[in-house]
Specification:
single chain; 242 residues; alpha/beta; 8-stranded mixed β-sheet; 6 helices; globular
Length: 242
């Protein structure tokens, strides 16, 4: 690993394609920073309306449910900043000028020291929303830092100190997650609508089911930590020349 543990940011902004993407990939890191006093904000790019295997689901209701779940999950992480929903249709996200404008606007508004997002360069990635959310994160940083992008926003440019890309093929930075596996798992438990599709839980999990989820989260963090010489970690590609 090239590096471990950024200095605690005053403000951190995580950008995900769908509700739960951020927690799955960076939940322990965000919980750690929030516990240490960082202002943590989340931007979710899509409405999550494809996030069910039920062909008869009320998708309008699903969108509302997933927003409630995301807000509750952020609360469980300790996030005290904004929880923003850009509202693009799940599966139809594009990395064009308008969503880039939205992301740049939020970066300028929230002025994070650290931004986290999907790695758009990951090979053989199937889900288009993850690719496009990654490009929006990268392109949004460029637009937010340079004054001649979107001057109509009326917001001062902002250049974050660091970008952490999750889901990277070649991670080179580790954030120590020791002591925050439970916070990550508890945040994921908020996504009840995703128990079947993502978390492999029954609709009404019992104590044993929940213990299995917590063990799965702990095992993933331990596996990531092993590659960085840590007991527990989340791994990222660090870009600090922004």
């Amino acid at each position: 690993m090239r590096s471990r543990n950024l200095a605690r940011p005053e403000r951190a902004l995580a950008i995900g394609a769908h509700p739960d993407d951020i927690e799955l990939n960076a939940g322990a890191t965000l919980a750690k920073w929030a516990a240490a006093g960082s202002e943590v904000s989340l931007v979710v790019c899509t409405d999550g309306s494809k996030g069910t295997w039920d062909p008869n689901a009320d998708l309008e209701e699903l969108v509302a449910v997933r927003q409630r779940e995301q807000r509750e999950s952020a609360r469980r992480l300790g996030a005290t900043g904004e929880v923003v929903f850009l509202g693009w249709v799940d599966g139809e996200l594009a990395s064009g000028p308008e969503p880039r404008r939205q992301v740049a606007s939020w970066i300028r508004t929230l002025r994070p020291d650290v931004v986290l997002g999907h790695d758009p360069w990951r090979r053989w990635r199937l889900h288009p929303d993850h690719r496009h959310a990654g490009w929006l994160t990268v392109d949004g940083i460029v637009a937010a830092r340079d004054p001649h992008f979107f001057p109509d926003l009326g917001l001062e440019p902002h250049r974050p100190d660091a970008l952490l890309l999750f889901e990277a093929d070649e991670p080179d930075h580790a954030e120590d997650a020791a002591g925050f596996a439970s916070a990550k798992a508890t945040a994921l438990e908020a996504f009840v609508s995703q128990y079947e599709t993502t978390l492999d839980l029954p609709p009404e999990p019992d104590a044993a089911d929940r213990a299995r989820l917590h063990a799965w989260v702990g095992d993933r963090l331990a596996d990531a930590g092993a590659s960085a010489g840590l007991d527990s970690a989340e791994l990222f590609k660090l870009i600090d020349d922004l």
